[in-house]
Amino acid sequence: MKDVAKLAGVSLSTVSRVLNKSSLVKEETARRVRKAVSKLDYQVNDSARILRTNTSNLIGVIGAGMEHPFLASLLKGLETEAREQGYSILLGDSDGEYEQEKIYLNIMKQKKIDGIVIISANVYTDILRMVKESGIPIVFASGYINDRDVACVTVDNVAAAYDVVDHFFQKGHEKLGIIRGPNSDLVASEERIRGVRLAYSVHNKIYSNKIQIEGDFTFEGGYVGTQKLLEATPDITAIFSFNDEMAVGAIRAIEAMGKKVPDDIEVIGFDDIPLAEYVKPSISTVSQSGYELGAQSIQLLHNIINKNHIEDNKIFIPHKLVYRESTI
Amino acid sequence: MKDVAKLAGVSLSTVSRVLNKSSLVKEETARRVRKAVSKLDYQVNDSARILRTNTSNLIGVIGAGMEHPFLASLLKGLETEAREQGYSILLGDSDGEYEQEKIYLNIMKQKKIDGIVIISANVYTDILRMVKESGIPIVFASGYINDRDVACVTVDNVAAAYDVVDHFFQKGHEKLGIIRGPNSDLVASEERIRGVRLAYSVHNKIYSNKIQIEGDFTFEGGYVGTQKLLEATPDITAIFSFNDEMAVGAIRAIEAMGKKVPDDIEVIGFDDIPLAEYVKPSISTVSQSGYELGAQSIQLLHNIINKNHIEDNKIFIPHKLVYRESTI
DNA sequence: GATATTAATGAAAACCATTTCATAAATATA
DNA sequence: TATATTTATGAAATGGTTTTCATTAATATC
Fold first, then answer.
1. Which among A98, A160, A303, B102 is most buried, taking Cβ atoms within 10 Å?
2. Is B147 in the same domain as B85?
3. Sign of CA dihedral B280, B285, B287, B293
4. Measured between CA atoms, how close is A44 to chain B, in angstroms?
5. A261 and A305: one domain?
6. What is the pTM of this model?
7. What's the CA–C1' distance between B1 and C8, in Å?
8. Can you give the CATH number for the domain in which B11 is found?
9. A16: nt with nearest C1' to CA
10. Do both A274 and A203 map to the same domain?
11. Which range of residues forms the domain containing residue A240?
12. Looking at the predicted structure, is the pLDDT value of residue A261 above 80?
């Protein structure tokens, strides 16, 4: 920077002003400085800038199980939009471990991230408290936090689950089975269960918790869950699985018991990952765009960071039921 | 830090020494300093440290299409191992755009990354040159660069492709079809073609480029490619696809033409992404661990950064042919 | 006991930008 | 023309570490 100043015949302050597009520098001087900058191929020293300004153009992303197809596309959306807005992504996959989340949070604080995106259905309240206390702008992606000053971007889980069950009832099904997420995934699963119950009450049916079984979002979880479900209630004719992998597991379990999908039992999944389309039978599912979710999260975060006026800090991205071979 | 020094009754230098585990500080003083550190809950200012030392504990990752299941698991491996070694991951998905790669490289340079992992079959030679010139330690993950001082971690593409074709020949197949990667994916695809040709010559058969068709690693690409392939050579009895998605597309195309997999045509894919197991028929494929690939890449990079002695800077991770329903 | 080594600490320079405050130059106002 | 205001610039302080060099304290050697 000193060299640039010397070459342009100005002071360090002026160079800095030009670089930061300050308005109070004569256009002619600015031009001279810019010329020197490009001639010397000067690049600002980021750490020095961060040290002075306490802003890094870095956005921290903490999540768990990012290799899951839906989250991977979410990450892609985050990444692309972040780039667009001039941020870089500092990535931390915690595997859902509390200690890891804490470690990442600390690292990110030290790196002076401008904001943080937490991708997670399951959120340790302790972590949330730490982030709030630190004053770092935060957005929850694909998870709803019932706290008026925490921003969230997510699909409307209540409405989506309602749509699925409503659809089943409209088609004349009476006995349903639900494969929910693990208990650690409290929020999203609870929301969806709320949607399920809503549909039950709208259709004047009585809901019992016995129709739901806990899954772990894996193929195997769906397989085993369905076995148990059908053991307890053999006359189930429709299954709603809270993600697509478990739906595949459910279908295989049904087939293994000698029944047919969709003729004997219809199945609807959630997420619409690519798998859902290629598997046989292909899976009807609640489609939501991970990419969109990621992109919107960054936009919202960007607005929070810049203290722009925000209409609403709870954003619901659209969802849509897509019908494939696992339903009639 | 000043406060810590005052509380412990020592100078800044001593605090710094304790923090950096310098040996030349009396154990008793060190204890006093540590106590003060924890009492004040002091954390070093990262940017100041980077400014002074030019090392950031940051590893840059540049890749394209990271939402692809195989690459997502690779990323997971990178991330987990990086965390283990005390690094954080600065992520950049370039979408394969030259300009984007350049931008990311610049940002990463400014952030003073300690090393860089490039995930890519297609590498712009210009980018490679820039990285080499900048002296940043570099590792190519899942891509082979024919340059003795560039470190690579990858599956042995030649051997893997050889195994597949050898298997087909052993089973008595005569007419094969190959769905290769796009031309942008020069290196990996070329290596695999080399493996194919090797198998041909070992089995005393004559290889013709007509049996291969270019794909784009998507389901659709596999579908269309297979149509063309079967149009040109209707009596093909075995297809080797360079990834699993295209293999699924191939199978659907074959079925659409009224033929059966594996009875009429056998199909083998590459990567062994979760999809391969759940799709119907499930896909026989060359299994390689993305996670392992990522983890080994970080270890190698770590060794390069620390100038440890390196046995070999070309690491081949194991692969294995797994047989499922798409082969007899 | 005197001298040579080694161990432990502190002072101050260096890393490189941003920003406040002061000042000089240019323009507007009376 | 003299004064007030605005615009453009520079000097110097600041952010928080690490590290070199100098110095003192402690130990070893003769």
1. A160
2. yes
3. negative
4. 7
5. no
6. 0.90
7. 20
8. 1.10.260.40
9. C18
10. yes
11. 157-288
12. yes
Task: Answer positive or negative: Cα dihedral of A294, A67, A270, B261.
Answer: positive
Select from B280, B283, B293 the residue whose CB has the most chain A CBs within 10 Å, as the one to mutate to test that interface: B280
Per-residue model confidence as pLDDT tens digits over B59-91: 999 998 888 999 999 999 999 999 999 999 999
Task: Give the ranges where A203-324 is alpha helix by DSSP (H).
Answer: 219-232, 244-256, 274-278, 290-305
Task: Give yes or no: residues B167 and B151 share one domain.
Answer: no
Residue A72 with chain B: CB contacts under 8 Å? 66-69, 72
d(CA B44, CA B208): 63
Structure tokens at A316: 């619901």
Choose the closest CB to B91 out of A79, A106, A109.
Answer: A79
Nucleotides of D under 7 A from a protein CB: 7-20
**How many domains, in total, are found in chain B?**
3
Is residue A180 included in any domain, yes or no? yes
Report pLDDT for A21.
83
Per residue in A24-49, pLDDT (tens digit) is: 788 889 999 999 999 999 999 999 99
Spell out the residues 6+ positions from residue A160 whose beta carbon is closer than 8 angstroms to its own.
A192, A195, A270, A286, A288, A319
A199, part of any domain = yes
Write the pLDDT tens digit of every residue in A62-112: 998 888 999 999 999 999 999 999 999 999 988 888 888 899 999 999 999
Q: Measured CA to C1', what is the nucleotide nearest B52?
A: C15
A165 and A268 fall within a common domain: yes
pLDDT tens-digit series, residues B152-193: 999 999 999 999 999 999 999 999 999 998 877 667 888 999
The gap between B54 CA and D21 C1' (Å) is: 22
Nearest CA in chain A to B55: A47
